[in-house]
Specification:
The chain is mostly beta strands. Helix content is 2%, strand content 38%. It is built from one helix and 29 strands. The protein has one helix at 350-357, and strands at residues 2-6, 9-14, 23-33, 37-42, 51-62, 75-80, 89-99, 103-108, 118-129, 140-145, 153-164, 168-173, 181-193, 204-206, 218-228, 232-234, 246-256, 259-261, 272-283, 287-289, 304-315, 322-324, 335-343, 346-347, 374-376, 389-392, 492-495, 501-504, 520-521. The strands form three sheets. Strands 1-3-5-7-9-11-13-15-17-19-21-23-26 form a 13-stranded parallel beta sheet, with no helix packed on it. Strands 2-4-6-8-10-12-14-16-18-20-22-25-24 form a 13-stranded parallel beta sheet, with no helix packed on it. The chain has a three-stranded antiparallel beta sheet with strand order 28-27-29, with no helix packed on it. A hairpin with a 5-residue loop joins strand 27 (492-495) and strand 28.
C-alpha cells in the first residue's frame, strides 16, 4: 500500500499544559510532497508527542514549496515552540529519500533544555539530495535548537548513506544551548559530495554551535568514507564555545577537495580521531583541521590522532592538502600519526613556514598559502606555544617518485656469444644447427614441440602372441630373472630366395628349399 500526502497534513498538537499524543504511521510506501507535513507539535508548556513512521518499502520526502507558503518544506516534524520538550521522531524503512528542500527534523524552538531525538533505520539506503528551488533551504535530517535549550541526538543506521548537492545532516544550535550529537553506522559506505546549485551551500555533516556553548560530538563508522567536491564534515563553533569531537572508524577514507574540521573562531578546537584500516587519501586541498582562533582570536588548537598502523597516508605532490592543529593566540594542538607510511606530505614548524612564505605576520601564517602538503601544529602569534607532532611509521623510503630507466635495459652484445651465427656470414659458410637428442632415440622433428626427455622405446613389451590375440584382456607383470631371454649378438646374415636379409647369431644347418636362407654371409675381407 502507498500513502501519498500532497498539500495536506497529518498532525497531533498541544497548545496548553498537556502533552501532545503520539502519531504512528505504518504503510508499504510513504510519499510526502507539495508542502504536505506529518507533525507532532507543542506550542506551550506541554511536551510534543512522539512521531513514528514505518514503511516496509520506502519513504520519499520531496520539495514542498507552494505558492501559498513558499517557505514550507514537505517533511516529517517533531517540534516544540514553547517551554515543553519536542517529541522524538523515528523512521524505519528500506530506503529513505529526501530531496528538493524536504526535511525530517526533531527541533526545539522554545525554552526547553531538552531537544528531541531523531533516529533513522534504513536497511538499504539513506539518500539526501539538493536544496529548495531557490537554494535557500537544504534537504536534510536535523535535530537542533533556536532558543536556550540543547540540541538532541541524531542516529542513522543503514547500508549506504549518500548526501549531495547542498543537502545537510545537522545537530546544530543557533541559541544558547549545546549542539547535539550525531552517530552514523553505514555498513557499506558514506559519501558526501558537492555543493548547492547556487555555489554557496556545501554538502555538510555538522554538529555546529553558533552560541556560547560547545558543539556536539560526531561519530561515523563505515567501510568507505568519501568527502569530495567541496563537501564537509564539521564539529565547529562560530561563537565563544569549543568545537566538538569527531571520530571516524573506517577501512578507507578519501578526502578529495573535502574537509574534516573541528575548528573554532574563538574557542578551543575540537579533537579529531581517525581510525583507518587500509588507506587515507588526501587530494585537491583535502583538509583535516582542529585549528582554533580562525577569527584572529584566542583558543587552543585541538588534537588530531590518526591510527593506521597497517595502512598508508597518501597525498599527491603540490595539491595543497594539509593536516593542521594550529591556534592564533593560544597553543597549537597535538598531532599523533601512526601508519605504515606517509607519502608526499611533510611536517613543518612555524619557523619553516615563515621562511617559505617570507613573512612573520601572524595573519599570513597559513599553510593553505603554500602549494605543498603540510602537517603543522603551532601558534601563529607566539612561537613558544608550539604544539607537538609525533609521527610513527615503518622505516621505508616515503618519497614516491618516477625513476627514468635507460633506453637500452641490457647490453646484449656483452652477454650473447657471437661465435656461432644462426645465419652464415659468408656465402660458403654454413649456419648454426640446434639438435636436441634427449637421453636416447632420435631427436624430434622440427615441426614438433621440444620435450625434456626423448627416450628409447622397447617394442618387445608391446608384442602380443597369436595365442594372446583372442584374449579380451592382457595382464602384464614384471619379469623375473628366470623370464628374461638372453639376447645373443648377431654374427652374420643370410639371404632368402627373395633377396631379404636376416641377421642371425649362427649359420643355419639346413639348405632346404624352405630354409631361411641358402648361403651364409660374411663380412668381406680387405
Amino acid at each position: 500500500m502507498t500513502l501519498l500526502l500532497k498539500v495536506s497534513s497529518i498532525l497531533t498538537q498541544s497548545d496548553g499544559a498537556g502533552n501532545a499524543g503520539p502519531l504512528v504511521i505504518e504503510t508499504g510506501r510513504l510519499i510526502v510532497s507539495g508542502g504536505a507535513i506529518v507533525s507532532t507539535t507543542s506550542t506551550n508548556s506541554g511536551d510534543g508527542g512522539t512521531l513514528s513512521v514505518t514503511a516496509s518499502d520506502s519513504i520519499q520526502l520531496t520539495g514542498g514549496f507552494t505558492s501559498v507558503n513558499n517557505s514550507s518544506p514537505s517533511g516529517l516534524f517533531a517540534l516544540a515552540t514553547g517551554s515543553g520538550r519536542p517529541g522524538d521522531l523515528s523512521i524505519t524503512t528500506k530506503q529513505l529519500i529526501i530531496r528538493d528542500g524536504a526535511r525530517a527534523t526533531a527541533s526545539n524552538f522554545g525554552s526547553s533544555e531538552l531537544g528531541g531525538t531523531l533516529s533513522v533505520n534504513a536497511t538499504d539506503l539513506v539518500q539526501l539530495i539538493g536544496t529548495s528551488p531557490d537554494s535557500q533551504v537544504s534537504s536534510g535530517l536535523l535535530v537542533g535548537t533556536e532558543g536556550t535549550g540543547n540540541a538532541g541526538k541524531l542516529t542513522i543506521e543503514t547500508q549506504k548513506l549518500q548526501v549531495s548537492n547542498g543537502a545537510i545532516i545537522s545537530a546544530r544550535t543557533n541559541g544558547e544551548g549545546n549542539g547535539g550529537s550525531i552517530t552514523i553506522k553505514a555498513s557499506d559506505s558514506v559519501e558526501l559530495n558537492g555543493i548547492a546549485p547556487d555555489g554557496q551551500k556545501p554538502t555538510v555533516l555538522t554538529t555546529e554551535t553558533r552560541g556560547v556553548k560547545d558543539a556536539g560530538n560526531l561519530t561515523i563508522e563505515t567501510g568507505l568514507l568519501t568527502v569530495k567536491n567541496g563537501a564537509q564534515i564539521t564539529s565547529s563553533s562560530t561563537g565563544g564555545g569549543s568545537a566538538g569531537n569527531i571520530q571516524v572508524i573506517t577501512d578507507s577514507l578519501r578526502l578529495d577537495h573535502g574537509n574534516i574540521v573541528a575548528q573554532t573562531e574563538s574557542g578551543n578546537g575540537g579533537n579529531i580521531t581517525l581510525s583507518v584500516k587500509d588507506l587515507l587519501v588526501l587530494r585537491h586541498q583535502g583538509q583535516i583541521s582542529a585549528t582554533a582562533g580562525t577569527d584572529s582570536a584566542s583558543g587552543n588548537g585541538g588534537n588530531i590522532t590518526i591510527n593506521a598502523p597497517n595502512g598508508f597516508i597518501v597525498s599527491v605532490p603540490n595539491e595543497n592538502s594539509d593536516i593542521t592543529a594550529n591556534a592564533f593566540e593560544g597553543s597549537g594542538g597535538n598531532i599523533t600519526i601512526t601508519s605504515s607510511g606517509n607519502f608526499n606530505i611533510q611536517q613543518r614548524d612555524r619557523e619553516e613556514l615563515e621562511r617559505e612564505l617570507q613573512t612573520n605576520d601572524p595573519t599570513q601564517l597559513n599553510t593553505q598559502r603554500l602549494p605543498t602538503n603540510d602537517i603543522t601544529a603551532f601558534s601563529q602569534t607566539d612561537p613558544t606555544l608550539e604544539g607537538q607532532i609525533n609521527i610513527s611509521t615503518l622505516d621505508v623510503d616515503q618519497k614516491l617518485s618516477l625513476v627514468k630507466l635507460p633506453t637500452v635495459l641490457i647490453d646484449t652484445l656483452n652477454i650473447v656469444d657471437t661465435g656461432c651465427n644462426a645465419i652464415a656470414s659468408t656465402a660458403n659458410a654454413e649456419g648454426s644447427k640446434f639438435i636436441v637428442t634427449g637421453r636416447g632415440g632420435l631427436p624430434p622433428s622440427p615441426d614438433q614441440p621440444l620435450t625434456t626427455d626423448v627416450l628409447w622405446s622397447d617394442t618387445r613389451l608391446a608384442f602380443v602372441t597369436p595365442q594372446q590375440q583372442g584374449l579380451k584382456k592382457t595382464v602384464h607383470r614384471l619379469q623375473s630373472k628366470s623370464d628374461i631371454i638372453e639376447i645373443n649378438p648377431a654374427t652374420g646374415w643370410v639371404f632368402d630366395n627373395q633377396g631379404n636379409v636376416t641377421l642371425i647369431s649362427h649359420a643355419p644347418n639346413t639348405h632346404g628349399v624352405n630354409s631361411l636362407g641358402k648361403i651364409p654371409a660374411s663380412c668381406s675381407q680387405r
